[in-house]
Fold this sequence. Notes:
The chain is α+β, with helices and mostly antiparallel strands. Helix content is 50%, strand content 18%. It has 24 helices and 25 strands.
Amino acid sequence: xxxxxxxxxxxxxxxxxxxxxxxxxxxxxxxxxxxxxxxxxxxxxxxxxxxxxxxxxxxxxxxxxxxxxxxxxxxxxxxxxxxxxxxxxxxxxxxxxxxxxxxxxxxxxxxxxxxxxxxxxxxxxxxxxxxxxxxxxxxxxxxxxxxxxxxxxxxxxxxxxxxxxxxxxxxxxxxxxxxxxxxxxxxxxxxxxxxxxxxxxxxxxxxxxxxxxxxxxxxxxxxxxxxxxxxxxxxxxxxxxxxxxxxxxxxxxxxxxxxxxxxxxxxxxxxxxxxxxxxxxxxxxxxxxxxxxxxxxxxxxxxxxxxxxxxxxxxxxxxxxxxxxxxxxxxxxxxxxxxxxxxxxxxxxxxxxxxxxxxxxxxxxxxxxxxxxxxxxxxxxxxxxxxxxxxxxxxxxxxxxxxxxxxxxxxxxxxxxxxxxxxxxxxxxxxxxxxxxxxxxxxxxxxxxxxxxxxxxxxxxxxxxxxxxxxxxxxxxxxxxxxxxxxxxxxxxxxxxxxxxxxxxxxxxxxxxxxxxxxxxxxxxxxxxxxxxxxxxxxxxxxxxxxxxxxxxxxxxxxxxxxxxxxxxxxxxxxxxxxxxxxxxxxxxxxxxxxxxxxxxxxxxxxxxxxxxxxxxxxxxxxxxxxxxxxxxxxxxxxxxxxxxxxxxxxxxxxxxxxxxxxxxxxxxxxxxxxxxxxxxxxxxxxxxxxxxxxxxxxxxxxxxxxxxxxxxxxxxxxxxxxxxxxxxxxxxxxxxxxxxxxxxxxxxxxxxxxxxxxxxx
Length: 762
């Protein structure tokens, strides 16, 4: 068996990814299947001799059982606290950060309700007010934990050791105890803080936020507009520390050490290994950083031992080590993208280079010496360009399935944008290192200024390129349609078959053509079928109500409430819908359950129309409200009902002292949305005969609503009363309840579809 380490590592990662995709509950079943397959494979001499299939089956069985064991030991004992309010004792283990006007703290838990918990379990808690908490100080406080069960973030959080998320109880003052004994990681955190502060002092705010993201992976100071442009241009990976960043910094350090140590490469490589590990600690041991760091360390150790490291084995070893430490690393999208990109570059980048070189470079050398010299210089320049393009193409091809699965969209011009900005990112990394060294030297701090100017110029160049590419037609191709999983599965299966063919080079071009044509046909057909239909996205944002309505590329945010840290759920839906502006934002009241994300939405998106019932309650947001093109301000006291018309939709909003409601009347039927506290007895009569009822919280006299379908947006513990009366009346009930977003689509012919948002709905 060739490359046993590669076979083991890739199989281990693939088995974990498949098990996490299917759900941890499937682990025992999968383990039995894999173990049974391994036992059967031993009965066949040919399979035993080859050893690949038995090794794959045995490794897969071990992988899923390790995942199951990790879940039982570390995850399951903590999940019982989701949705509860509990007293915790914990230590701050990462630098605090600010986002969406709230302060976030990553805490390593010691106990919950005086009950000891597994070591290394973390939680992220948010607070409206800043807490004077230093890294590794101990905090005792009360936290309201949220449930993210079934959401796309659950496994991602666990991959970072974060089992719980919550918010601090504002009524309870936290007790903070300084800790004089600091672990080594504390100094890594302080180094990161020092680097960020130094960059902030040398560069303008916008450029400093970007450079800090490139250097340390800290994206908290990058605006939504920048993130959106990076995503649309296909260059969002530049602000996530990965193999490219570590490789560039490692090469800088190797060059410096080789010069200092008088070309003693072995000693330089060993010292550089320590540097790579320290850099991993400074930027935080995220899965993508660890993967890249392990690969670089293996390469450096090979240099020190005068042996060339095998790239596939190094990549497999990195994946295996990471997944062995935390099996949930296989669900971290950053790690999967980094791994896939590296695999693509290793497997096909050099083949693309050879293919291009054979066609553009002459094979005979009959020219004169001067001409040969000029040609060699030109050839070196062309090879550099080809190398960048081939690496971008290789990474794009291998990451495409993961991008589609996780983000349900992909950037069409990613190769172009990466070709245009790769050299600029390298310049930023090199100049930032020199700039920081000069600044910390004190004596030569003045020399940091020109390098800061170069960094700022390179950052501005990247901003211009990302803005230009993201503004091109079809810069982002949506892949959220229901046909995409079938198309993707078919293309992956067909690709696997082609890889086994001997003459696959001739088939690949036809494979690419078929893939593109079938996707276009599917996208056009899906768009035609869903034209003029109305979609309601009911978001699982906790115990609040967030509802987004969309039709014909127009977007209406009818409610935007929930737990503050769940704004990312609402924002992700808008991003996946490729929303550039919001046509209507309804602000019936300022309660957390109905409009917690109002300020974030107004900051991140242009608003065409905004309806505000009581502007006094939104006084702090007046500057943002004033940016809307058209402001509608009905009065709930004199006229509780306001009617708006858009296309073929009649939209009525209602507000009284108890609650609020929105009625959407279209050709496909009526949809009524009620917030917490609404009394259905007070609603206008035309509201009561709704076909679809979306409800949150405690709604009085809800039995008056004659709807066929009920969608409940609330936490699981608040669902019982709706189930009781709805079941008696024979209604069909759907609920978020911590299990993910729901999407209701209504067609003109009366046909409807109600499914989970993450199941490829558009």
